C-alpha cells in the first residue's frame, strides 16, 4: 500500500467511535493540564499509564497523543490571559500575548494561537506521515558541534530580541546562565554551586523557575503596588475575533513557526522551548511592525505558538522511526508502547503499520478537535479577565503552589514541619521575579539562560571531547559553519546598519518588554 | 482532572500515610514519573493489587540526584515502618558514592533484586571495528581516539566502560567517555557517527540491531544471551560482568518477622502471572534474587563500583 492508502486506513481506525472518545478525553485532559502551571503533559501521561494498562493499545496511545497536543494548546491560554506560562514552551507566548490581552485583544491573541497551533499541527503531522525518514536523517546529522552552533545562534538572536536596554537584557540572561550551572555536571558527575543541598543536585527545574518568575513574581508586584490593583484591565475591546489585518499579519508567522518548529522538534536535543525562542526572534526580524514588539505584536504570538505545536509533532518523528524519545513526554509514550509489547524503532512502520497510521491519523483528528473545542471557548476564556484581580491572583497562587507540590513529593523539615523544597524555591524565585520587575529588568531572558545555558555548555564540551580538544571540530561541517555565520550576521549586520546612520530605525525596532 | 487528584494524592500521601491494615504498601520511586524505577514501582503496584497480595498500594515519586534524595527521605521518615518500600537499583550505588550521599544502602533493609539488564557495546553498521578484539586494539593504540557514547557520568554505562578498559589493560582514566543526558541522546550520537562506540543497556539498541543499523560486539552477561548475536565480554577475553539491576528495599529498623512477611509478599508477586507478563511485555529480564545471596551480591557490587569510580577519578 502507498502512503495515501495507509493514511486512509488510519483515518478509518481513528474515526471509530471508541477512538474518537479516547482522543476527546486526551485533548480535554491535555488542555486542562496545560492550563495548570507546573503540571505538564509528561506527568499526566505517566500517571495515566497504569490506568490504561487494561485498555487496547490503539485507544490509549491515541489518548496520550491527544494529551500531548492538548497540553501544548492549554499552556498558551494561561500565558496570554494571566501571564502565567503553564509549561516552558509557552513562555514566549506570554511576552506579546499578555500585552495584547491587557489591551483588550485577548480574543484575537487566543484565536491566532489556536488557529496557528492547528495549522502547524496539521502541516507537521502531514510532514510526519510523508517525510519522516528524511527529516530524521537531517536531525541525526546534528552532533554536539552543530548543537553548539545552533545554541550560539539562539543566544545571539534571542538576547538581542529582548528588552530595550541591552545591558539589562544581558544581566537577566546571565542570572539565568548562573542558575543553569547549579547541580551535578553531567559530563564529570561533580556537583557545582549546590551548597551541599541534595535537592539542588539535579539543578533548578525550568518549570519551577518560570512559574515563580512569571506567576508568583507578578502576584507580589500586584500586591506591592496600590496602583496596579486599581489599573483596570480592559477585558474586551473591539471584536473577540481576528480582524482582516490580524489574519494578514498571522498567516506567514504560522508558516514560519511551523518551518522552524518541526525540524527542531525532531532533533534529539531540540525541544519546543528552543523552537519557540527562535521563532520569536525570527518574527521580530521579519515583522513589518517591529515597533509593536513588546507592546503586543500578534506575530509574536502566532509564530511561537505554531512553532511549539509543530515541534510536538516533530518529536514523534524520531520516536516512531528510531524509537528515540527526545522529550519527557515522548519518553513516557515510549514506555506506553512497551507496555503493549510494541518496540518503536526502524521496524515499527513495517511490523505495526495499522497502529502507527492510526496514531498519525488520530493526531489529525485530535488537532481538529482542539480547534473546534477551543475557538468557541475563547469568548468564555477572556471573561477570566473580568474576575476581580485579588480573586484572580489568589487563584493563580493556589494553582501554582499545588502544581509544584504535586510534581515532587520531596520534603525537608523546617522547625519540625515537613515542607516541600520545590515550594521554597518557588517562593524564593517569586521574590526574585518581583525584584526584577520592580527594577525594570526583563524576566524572559532569565528562563532562556536556564534552558539554553546548560545545553550550550554540554554541546561545547562534548564536541571538544570528541575532537580531543581540537577547536576546529566546531566548524567542521557545513551546518555548523552556516549556523555560526548566521549568528555572526545577527550581531554584525545591525552594527553596519547603525554605522550607516540608520540607528534611529533600529532604536525603534528594539521595542520594550515587561 | 483525574491526574490532578492523583498528583495531589501523591503529595498528600506522605503526610497522611496512616494505612488501615497491614497489607498496605507505600512504594517510593526515587525518580520522576516515567523512568525505569517509576515503572518498576507502578508495575509492582498493579501486580500486588491484581493478585490480592495487598489491597492498597500507593506510589510516590521523589526524584533527584540518582535516587539519593528519595533514599535520604526514606531513611529519615520511614524508619521502622513495615509498610514502606523503596525501589532502587545499581545506578543508586554509583550515585551514593559520587554524590557523597549522607545515607547509603546499608541503612535500608534490602529485600530482593527484581529485574536486570545487561550492558552492550555497539558500533554503527559501517564501523571498521568488527569485534571486541578490534576495539581493544584501537584502545591500546590510542585510548583517547575511541570515544564512548553513553548515559550520564558515573552511571552504569560509564562504570562499564571503565571496567572494560581496565580489564583490557588500558588506563581507565584515559577513557574518552562522552556523557549524554540519556540513552536516547546517546543513541542519536551513535547513529549519527558522532562517537566511535556506544555503551548502554541492550534494550536501548535492540531495535536498531534488528534493523541492521547497529552491530553488537559484546554483552556484559555471564552467559551468552539467547537472541543476542554477540559474545559475552568474558568470552571475548575481557573479564567483566555487570548487570544494571533494580531492587526493592524496606525501611530501616524493621523486625525480622516484618522483613520475612515483606519478603514473602514480594516472592509471591514475582511468581505471579501478572508480574511475569508485565516483565515480558516491557522487555525486562527477571533476575529475582533474595535473602543472603542478594545481600552478598549487593556488597560485592558496592565494593567493585567504589573501586572503579576511584580509578576513573569520579570519587576521591
What's the gist of this structure?
Chain B: Belongs to the UPF0065 (bug) family. Chain A is mainly alpha-helical. Helices cover 72% and strands 2% of the residues of chain A.
Q: How would you sum up this structure, described in words?
A:
- The complex is a heterodimer of chains A (about 525) and B (about 325).
- Chain A is mainly α and about 525 residues long.
- Chain A has one domain.
- Chain A has 19 helices and four strands.
- In chain A, the strands form two sheets. Chain A has a two-stranded antiparallel ribbon. In chain A, strands 3-4 form a two-stranded antiparallel sheet.
- In chain A, β3 (about 410-415) and β4 (about 415-420) form a beta hairpin.
- The longest helix of chain A is centred in the N-terminal third of the chain and has 50 residues, at about 90-140.
- Chain A is globular.
- Chain A starts with a helix and ends in a 5-residue tail after the last helix.
- Mean pLDDT of chain A is about 80; it is low at about 510-514.
- With about 325 residues, chain B is of the alpha/beta class.
- Chain B has two domains: about 20-115 and about 245-310, D-Maltodextrin-Binding Protein, domain 2; about 115-220, Periplasmic binding protein-like II (D-Maltodextrin-Binding Protein, domain 2), CATH 3.40.190.10.
- Helices cover about 45% and strands about 20% of the residues of chain B.
- Chain B has helices spanning about 1-15, 35-50, 70-75, 90-100, 130-140, 155-165, 185-190, 200-210, 255-270, 275-280, 290-310, and strands at about 25-30, 55-60, 85-90, 110-125, 145-150, 175-180, 195-200, 215-220, 245-250, 285-290.
- Chain B is globular and about 60 Å long.
- Chain B starts with a helix and ends with a helix.
- The model of chain B is unreliable at about 1-20 (pLDDT under 50).
- The chains are: A mainly alpha (about 525), B alpha/beta (about 325).
- At the A-B interface, α2, α3, α13, α16 and α18 of A face α1, α2, α3, β6 and α7 of B.
- Chain B: InterPro entries: BUG, Bug_dom1.
- Chain B: Belongs to the UPF0065 (bug) family.
- Chain B: Keywords: Signal.
- Chain B: This is Tripartite tricarboxylate transporter substrate binding protein.
- Chain A: It comes from Tianweitania sediminis.
- Chain A: It holds the Pfam family TctA.
